[in-house]
Design a protein that fits this description.
This protein has 404 residues and is of the alpha/beta class. The chain has 14 helices and 13 strands. It has a 7-stranded mixed sheet with strand order 3-9-8-7-6-4-5, with helices on both faces. The structure holds pyridoxal-5'-phosphate (PLP). Pyridoxal-5'-phosphate binds next to α5. The site of pyridoxal-5'-phosphate has 13 residues, from α5.
């Protein structure tokens, strides 16, 4: 049994905290699962500097290349100048500032939805929203590969949980019937539109039809789709055929939007309820003015002709990386997003490959349990609008050179 889960008799001495931490870390180390921080010295971009070394970055979620470059800095700087460094309190107390309202207006317009609420992160958006909509006596039914924030929020809610097989509306239907037969009240279905570690798409139209048959609600997490997919680049669920049938649109302002924060968009009653019930909104200080203003500027950029051009460059780069990886036998399916998983299986195979790539000057981290299931360790490449054709060639060549 692991030191973390071992039990002790009542009269035995308890471990010192540092001894506990050291034992847990040793166990992670032995399993090839220990993680460490890398101290980078440069802003986000296709090249990262760490001390004297630099790396080609194929790991960032800054899909349109907005996080590091100057584009959004003036908006952040102006908000810091005009409204200060911090917001001082929760929005419900006295922390609501013009950048927060401007951001929510920008999200509402961008998503073509009646109302929106900004959170300090995407994680906080999930953690506040899901327990506000489902609790004891209700059911939350989520895709097997749903992000940790959806899983944690579902657990926190106290609702009965069911997991459906990845992208399997038939299995979702089975759980929906089960929940109704158990007389559970609210039934909330959770999925991502683009799955964060596999880059594949949820069959949203089928999931919507399925949940509608049972009167369930659907939350779609668009973290990796905002700015990448959909009409006006507003996410997969922004398709007019789907938009009004998705009850809760959730996303982050920290990936393609290039800033920091999270959002939920939907009906006015939904948003008013979240203002009253979402604990990560109520009991947390409002986002810093600079973060809110940068996010609003990021959304304006995505919606602009300049954003359309960045989006076209992103998709050219996605196609270019795919054709080069496919030629090397490393990309089975056509790309649905900017995320390319190269599944290697054993944890050690993935960490060894990542170390070799790092020696070659490429930053493509290994993704391991618990981020993905055990034995499904992988390299996860992401491509952005800022990569040059030459950088894409270098990444593909380095991957082709890995042992099969
Ligand atoms: C990154 C991510 C989040 C969290 O967003 P943050 O703003 O980074 O907290 C939520 N869901 C998914 C699928 C993500 O990949």
């Amino acid at each position: 049994m692991s030191p973390i889960h071992a039990t002790l008799p009542a009269d035995a001495p308890r471990p010192a905290l540092d001894a506990f931490a050291a034992a847990a870390l040793a166990q992670l180390e032995a399993g090839g699962l220990r993680r460490r921080l890398t101290p980078f010295d440069s802003a986000q971009g296709p090249v990262l500097r760490a001390g004297a070394r630099s790396f080609l970055n194929f790991a960032s979620n800054d899909y349109l290349g907005l996080a590091g470059p100057p584009a959004l800095r003036p908006a952040a700087a102006a908000a810091a100048r005009d409204f200060g460094a911090g917001s001082g309190a929760s929005r419900l107390v006295c922390g609501g500032l013009p950048p927060h309202r401007a951001l929510e207006e920008a999200i509402t317009a961008f998503q073509s939805l009646p109302a929106a609420l900004a959170f300090s992160s995407g994680f906080a958006a999930a953690l506040g929203t899901i327990p506000a909509l489902a609790g004891p006596g209700d059911a939350v039914i989520l895709d097997k590969l749903a992000h940790a924030c959806l899983v944690d929020a579902a657990r926190l809610s106290g609702a009965v949980l069911r997991v459906f097989r990845h992208n399997d509306p038939g299995h979702l239907d089975h759980h929906l019937r089960w929940a109704r037969n158990r007389n559970l009240r609210n039934i909330l279905v959770l999925t991502e539109s683009v799955f964060s570690m596999d880059g594949d798409l949820a069959p949203l139209a089928d999931i919507i039809e399925t949940k509608e048959r049972h009167g369930a609600w659907l939350l779609v997490d668009e973290a990796h789709a905002t700015g990448v997919l959909g009409p006006a680049r507003a996410g997969a669920a922004s398709d007019p055929a789907l938009r009004d049938r998705v009850d809760v649109h959730m996303g982050t302002l920290s990936k393609a939007v290039g800033a920091s924060g999270g959002y939920v968009a939907g009906s006015r009653p939904l948003i008013d309820l979240l203002v009253n019930r979402a604990r990560s909104f109520i009991f947390s200080t409002a986002p810093a003015p600079a973060a809110a203003a940068a996010a609003a500027a990021g959304i304006a950029m995505i919606a602009s002709p300049e954003g359309a051009a960045l989006h076209a460059t992103l998709w050219n780069n996605i196609q270019a990386l795919h054709s080069r990886l496919a030629a090397a036998g490393r990309a089975p399916a056509p790309p649905a997003s900017a995320i390319f998983p190269v599944i290697l299986g054993p944890e050690k195979a993935a960490t060894d490959a990542a170390a070799r790539l790092r020696d070659d000057g490429l930053w493509i981290p290994a993704i391991r349990y618990p981020t993905v299931p055990r034995g499904k360790a992988r390299l996860r490449l992401t491509v952005t609008a800022s990569h040059t054709p030459d950088q894409i060639d270098r990444a593909a060549a380095a991957l082709a050179g890995l042992a099969p």
